[in-house]
Specification:
The structure holds two protein chains of two kinds. Chain A is mainly α. Chain A contains 19 helices and two strands. Classes of the chains: A mainly alpha, B alpha+beta. Chains A and B meet through helix 1, helix 6, helix 7, helix 9 and helix 19 of A and strand 2, helix 2 and helix 3 of B.
């Protein structure tokens, strides 16, 4: 069976189909929103409780000063890394199959990053002192410590969040104008404001397209730098297991891997709930799964390169960490991680039958992200449990506060995404309509083939 | 600037291109003609001169300004709160490089977005000529006319090209 790009209906039908989720609210949406809001509020309550009582309610202690909270931070920064990065890569590569995917991926970046950015604040303990991180000459004569990787984190997150918001909003302006033209009353006013008075003049299209390309060029290195900087939080320390130069690319590839897995998870759900079967087809999932396969292979390559270097060197301080992971208390986590990230994922993704089976792909991508969360945990915790003099060694056990704070970003992400789904079309309408302009049929011999005209 | 604007609506790109050609044939200058569409079309599709954009020049300049600001912030802070230690520079260049790079990118993004909106003349809260069918995939050809007589000529040209609806604004 050959996979083809989807046959698109008439423009009016595309408008109706893509705008339908904006104008209808089902009871399922309310149930999902209520559950997500509940999880979010529980997490918020746990955060408030931790602030009022102190960090001792978490499982972190000397020498394990970084626990689940930092694992969550790395995991969510990783997820956020991929949406805009992936969309920018596909735009620059001129991959026309990206069109129904980019909006959902870009929104994913913004909400995942909003969740990730809260973890340094949560981990501060005394969150109300967050303004110490803002660079201004204050009355205490304190200045920003620019040599601290945490300061680099703040700057990188700020740049990437701003860039991703712009990259999400500007291409959505023509779609807001379409929504504006399809509604009345207060809603028309709201979308009129969001559309900024867009009319679709030649200059507007020309500038928008130029801007999208420039932003894609600028945001690609920002995305790479952001997760590299997160890896330097670990890499520049002298802690065994962290102090390695491979962490930069290893983190970036891991972020791309988990991010693409989440894009697939979201698209399976969006396709089903919003009834976008005509627009997001097995053709797109096949392409996405191939990219996921490449990310899985590169991730495994980097992981193995890091592993074999430490294993061969057998430095006592590194061997201790490897022993904890390979045969000690973290063995089962290590095994689950390897199963999810490579042993199960790579062989399955090699088969097209699997890549086009959406619910199987959905299950696998969830498994991959569970494995990636475990991988983040295994980076953070085992390196610390036997750090320093042996009398201070101890196993880390996360408390209920930390587990609620782990639920918090998941629920918050779902909540914001559900609200966004009612505000903006989850598929870029003008982008898929552009497909209709670009695709044409070409006669070759006695056959007819679909071809893409160079209109971009 | 919306006085005496004539707008003709066409169901497809071929009709809109015909409308533009009719206007050009009726001696309307190319710069007074515009096409409103729901998707971007290449300028060549309508036989109009290509649009210009300065964004490719603006973005690198913004990037450089951002880099200068970033470095000034780091080096200036280090210089103002000096901690002289033997064999240690006041400004740590690798750390300064990270902040400089991030701020350069941030400036590049923000300034490009700002100038994009400027080039697109957005936000535009005026009642500029528009037709709701543009959102449904139709195309609207607009032409800026000097006076009422020219507007009458534009209406005739657009009707002869097969416009489904022609309206006059202003």
């Amino acid at each position: 069976m050959k996979l083809h790009p989807p046959e698109l209906p008439a423009d009016e039908q595309i408008n109706r189909d893509v705008l339908m989720p904006l104008f209808t609210i089902s009871w399922r949406w309310w149930v999902m929103l209520t559950l997500a809001a509940l999880g979010f509020l529980l997490g918020l309550a746990a955060w408030c409780y931790m602030m009022s009582t102190g960090m001792w309610v978490t499982g972190i202690h000397r020498p394990v000063m970084w626990g689940v909270l930092i694992a969550n931070y790395v995991f969510w920064v990783g997820l956020s890394n991929s949406g805009t990065l992936f969309s920018a890569m596909l735009r620059l590569a001129g991959a026309t199959w990206r069109r129904p995917i980019t909006r959902a991926a870009e929104a994913m970046t913004v909400f995942a990053l909003l969740m990730a950015a809260q973890f340094p604040l949560i981990h501060l303990g005394r969150t109300w002192f967050f303004y110490y991180m803002i660079p201004y000459a204050n009355q205490r004569g304190l200045w920003w410590n620019y040599a601290s990787p945490l300061t680099w984190d703040l700057t990188a997150i700020m740049s990437y969040l701003t860039g991703s918001l712009v990259y999400l909003y500007l291409p959505a302006v023509p779609d807001f104008a379409i929504v504006r033209d399809h509604c009345r009353g207060l809603r028309r006013k709201l979308y009129g404001i969001l559309a900024l008075g867009w009319r679709g003049t030649r200059q507007q299209w020309h500038s928008l397209n130029s801007c999208i390309v420039i932003l894609a060029i600028l945001l690609l290195p920002v995305a790479v730098s952001m997760h590299t900087i997160v890896s330097w939080d670990f890499g520049v320390s002298l802690t065994p297991g962290w102090h390695t130069s491979i962490f930069g690319p290893y983190f970036v590839v891991g972020a791309i891997y988990s991010g693409i897995a989440l894009v697939i998870t979201l698209l399976v759900v969006i396709r089903r709930v919003c009834k976008f079967e005509k627009y997001i087809t097995p053709y797109h999932f096949d392409k996405l799964a191939k990219v996921l396969l490449v990310a899985a292979l590169v991730w495994f390559y980097l992981w193995f390169a890091d592993y074999i270097t430490a294993w061969y060197g057998k430095l006592p301080e590194e061997k201790v960490i490897m022993d904890i992971k390979n045969a000690g208390p973290y063995f089962w986590l290590q095994l689950t991680m390897m199963l999810g990230n490579t042993i199960v994922a790579i062989p399955l993704l090699c088969f097209r039958k699997f890549r086009t089976n959406l619910w199987a792909l959905f299950a696998l991508t969830i498994f991959i992200n569970i494995a990636m969360w475990i991988e983040r945990f295994l980076i953070v915790v085992p390196s610390l449990v036997q750090k320093g003099p042996s009398y201070s060694w101890s196993i880390y056990q996360a408390t209920w506060v930390e587990w609620l704070l782990t639920l918090y970003p998941f629920a918050g992400f779902c909540m914001f995404y559900l609200l966004f789904a009612k505000l903006a079309p989850l598929i870029g309408i003008w982008e898929i309509r552009e497909d209709k302009v670009a695709y044409t049929t070409k006669k070759l011999g006695v056959g007819e083939f679909s071809a893409i005209a160079q209109v971009e | 600037m919306t006085s005496n604007v004539v707008l003709g609506v066409f169901p497809d790109v071929a009709g809109a291109a015909q409308g533009v050609q009719s206007l050009l044939a009726a001696s309307f200058p190319a710069h007074s003609i515009d096409v409103l569409s729901g998707v971007p079309y290449p300028d060549e599709a309508f036989g109009l001169p290509p649009q210009q954009s300065n964004l490719t020049k603006i973005a690198p300049v913004a990037w450089i300004i951002g880099a200068i600001c970033g470095f000034t912030l780091v080096a200036g802070s280090a210089w103002l709160s000096r901690l002289p230690l033997a064999a240690k520079p006041i400004v740590a260049l690798p750390a300064a490089g990270v902040i400089t790079y991030e701020l350069a990118m941030l400036f590049g993004v923000v300034v490009t977005a700002f100038f994009t909106l400027r080039e697109m003349r957005l936000p535009d809260w005026r009642k500029s000529p528009y037709h709701y069918r543009v959102a449904e995939g139709w195309l609207a050809v607009t032409v800026q006319c000097r006076d009422a007589m020219a507007a009458t000529g534009a209406i005739a040209a657009l009707k002869s090209a097969g416009a489904e609806e022609v309206t006059r604004h202003g």
